[in-house]
Structures are given as C-alpha cells and as structure tokens.
Automatic annotation (TrEMBL):
It is an enzyme of class 2 (transferase). Residues 75-98 are annotated as: Disordered. Mg(2+) binds at residues 261, 274. Coiled coil: none annotated. The lineage of its organism: Eukaryota, Sar, Stramenopiles, Ochrophyta, Bacillariophyta. The keyword Plastid does not apply. One of its GO terms (molecular function) is protein serine/threonine kinase activity. Its EC number is 2.7.11.-. This is MAP3K-like serine/threonine kinase. Residues 50-395 form the Protein kinase domain.
Amino acid sequence: MVETLSEEWIDKAQAKLANASKGNFFQTTEARLIPTFDRGDDAAAIDDELTLGKILGEGAFCEVKEISAIKLNNNDAGDGEVTPADLPSEHKGDTDEADFPVNLFQSKAEIRTYMSDNCLREDGTGSHSRYALKQLKPNNSQKHVEQGLIDLSIEAKFLANLNHPSIIRLRGLSGTPLTTNFGLVLDRLYMTLEDQMDAWTATKKDSMSNGLCGCLGMGKMDEETRMGMLVSVVTAAYDLSCAMRYIHDQNLVYRDFKPENAGFDVRGDVKIFDFGFCKELTTDLFDKPSGQYKLTKRTGSQPYIAPENFVGKPYGKPSDVFSFGVLLWEMLHCKFAFYHLPNPKDYTDLVCNRDFRPAIDKSLPLRLQTIISESWDPDYRKRPTFKRLAIQLGVELRDVSSDQDALNRSEQMLDKSARSFRVNAKKKTTH
Ligand SMILES: Nc1ncnc2c1ncn2[C@@H]1O[C@H](COP(=O)(O)OP(=O)(O)OP(=O)(O)O)[C@@H](O)[C@H]1O
Ligand SMILES: [Mg+2]
C-alpha cells in the first residue's frame, strides 16, 4: 500500500473534489450528520476503532469488509456524548438498517455511540455485522490509489447528501480523507443483485429438472415458482426505478448500473450502491445540439454502457435508462445480455452501430417487454424517463402481486418512495 501522497497531488485532488461538488445539488441539499471513526496510527498512538471481519466483496480498486466491532476512543468529549440510556426506548434493543433512528441524533458523538452499541445484530443463526467498510485494496498501484481515493471521496460526498430508501446509507467515514486509510462505513448488505440473479437461475434450473422446463415468461415452470420469481424481479426493478427517478430528479447521473452494484439488505429490500461515477449535470457541461452533456467517454461497465456514451458522444440521463433496460432484460431472462461481446470493438460494431439487442421473450407480460425495448432504444430521445418507468413498474407490480403479502409490500414500497419524493420536494422549496 502506498503511504505517501505528494502535497501537489493533495492540492489537485482537493480541486477535483471542490469541482465535483460545486453544483446546485450540494447547494440545495443538506448533508446528513456523518461521524468519523479512527483507523489506527502508531505514530500518533491512535487506536483503530474498527475491527474488520471477512471480505464481503471487491471491485476494481476497492474492497468491502464487514465491521465486526466498533470500540470508541474517548475523543468525543464536549460533543454531547450520550449513553444508550438517553435514547428513547423504541430505539433500544434489536434494530436494523431500516430502523436506524432518523432525526434523533443531535451530534456525531451520539451516532458513534449508537453504532458502537448496535454494531452487531443477533438472530437465531448468531450475530451479524450491521455495517461494512469500503476502502482501497491494499495492492493498488500509485496511479490507482490516487484515482481510487478521489472516487471514494466523491462517492462519500454524494452519499452523505442522498436520501432514498433504495440507496445505500453512508453511516460514517473512517481514517483521514485523501490518505490510504480513508474509508466509507455503510449499511451491510447480504447479497448483490448478481448473487440474486444466480439464485433465480438456480431456481429456474430446478424447475426445469422437474420436467417443468421454461423460463420466467414462458409459462412452463410451475405457476407458483414462476409468479414468485416474477414478483421478486418486478419488485426489485420497481424499487431501482424509484431510486433512479430520485437520482435524476436531483439532476445527477449514476453511470454504473450493473448487477454487482445493487444488493439486498437484511429485509430483502434492494439498494443501489457504488456512487464512484455519480456526476451532477451542471450547465457548463451542457451540449445544446444534442440536449445532452459533455461527459467522460465509456464511463461505466461495458455491457451496460449506452451507445452514445460508449462511442464518445454527449450523453446524460437516457444513458442510465439504457443500462436499466439491459439489467431488466437480464433479471427477467436469467442470462447476460451481451456476455458474448467482451471486446470493445465488437460491442461498438454490433450494439452501438448495428443496434443488436437480444430477443425479448414474447411470453413475458407485455408491459415488461415494452419497457425493455423502449429503454434500450438506440435513439436516446425515445427512451422513457425513470419517472415513467417507475409508474409503469408500479402498475405491473400491482398486476403480478396476487397474494396479500406481496400486495402489502408493494403498497409499503410505493408509500416509502412517495414519501421520499415528498421530503425531497419539500427540501427543494425550502432552499
Ligand atoms: N454495503 C455493502 N455490504 C456488503 N457488500 C458490499 C457492500 N458494498 C459493496 N459490497 C460488495 O463489494 C463489491 C465492491 O463494492 P463497490 O462496487 O462499491 O466497489 P468498487 O471498487 O467501487 O467497484 P467497481 O469495480 O464497480 O468500481 C460489491 O460488488 C459487493 O459485492
Ligand atoms: Mg462496483
């Protein structure tokens, strides 16, 4: 791990961070209270407050580990330290991510104490970490450390200001910004959408080995399994579309939709994470002829990048819709859409220039077929907005949810999302 970063680089990095947060989004939204946890520093005799457990996953430059204990150094004097006894009774005992007390804490010290006391969740199978730490991998090259630290800092800035039930919660920071011990303390997720897609594929295969061959749309799987999977897929797709609607409403683009960047919490609710490529669409980036924005070419992960982004034309919100269309196709077909095109030249030739898309299963509900074909339309002007997608998927969710539990859940999620729009709209009018 590279330990020293030059003064010159730190100046440049700070300028980049200031640039990334200069837009309206950061002026009109308020950052939540985000406490910092010490990471060990022998030279300054600071103890590491976080005990890390197993690796939960890794990306290109970062790794995510569970936090198995938070042992506070006593450095919060004067910051309104509270003991658990000060917390209202409904916030004691077993709580999880969704129950993290809202609008209750007055200081970062209170949050640190709460998180330290509630770091583990006990259930019938043992105790599990509630929080995870995202930090740089130890063996990155100098260039990757520098880029990774800037991405991680930008991600922290966006996450501190984003507020939606289907977006991962940033609960804290760790270490010193722009040093290799910097990290993000996040709610811990239990499986990624990629893992869930593997599970759906296995369920589908099981159904086929029982002689009930078919896929999600074909009606040949036993009806209960097929409908159960359809409800799960449409529920996740609906929640993701609501999160994306909220992100676009803030005039941000996410730019990294893929099954590895969404996951499920302990309740099975989907969350988008990995905001390293998130970007505000500021007016200086606007390209009048296209109505899109001058943004870095090929940002994202190849099999989900929209043609206009891939070939270096201006792009914007419709690029996220394209990625969503690919992802939805994959969730419904239990396959990767462009797995056979790993070479950028082939992707350019087939997907970008010749409009190749895999066939959509004709026995899927018609509304879902239309959503996919419109979302990955080669012409970005014809793609639906996430506002429209969220409405259509909400209707589809009601149609496919026949049992009362699913219906109740879909009502709850519709309500949760509606509430977050109201909170957001209120905020906008107050600034
Ligand atoms: N909160 C979390 N809880 C559990 N696992 C997580 C969490 N966040 C991320 N992960 C796991 O770690 C992996 C890497 O995380 P993330 O995508 O944020 O890192 P990254 O380095 O920015 O990735 P990328 O290569 O996509 O840029 C995820 O794909 C997932 O498997
Ligand atoms: Mg990722």
